[in-house]
Amino acid sequence: MVKIMAVVTTRESGFAGGTPVFLARDKEELQALSHSLEKILNAAAHQLNEDSFLLVYRQ
């Protein structure tokens, strides 16, 4: 089973629902924040597009 843990994005709109959304100022912060959350949450970061990452936990 896969659980969506968080979304990291540079876009201020386009994501809704019960998943936490983290906003990054630029692409460098997007990469750094995704990598940090990947380690903290013990999750896998997957790039959805050039502006967004999805962090998922696989049980």
UniProtKB/TrEMBL annotation:
Pfam families: YIEGIA_cap (PF21835)
Source organism, top-level taxon: Bacteria
Protein name in the entry: Uncharacterized protein
Organism: Cohnella lubricantis
Lineage of the species this protein comes from: Bacteria, Bacillati, Bacillota, Bacilli, Bacillales
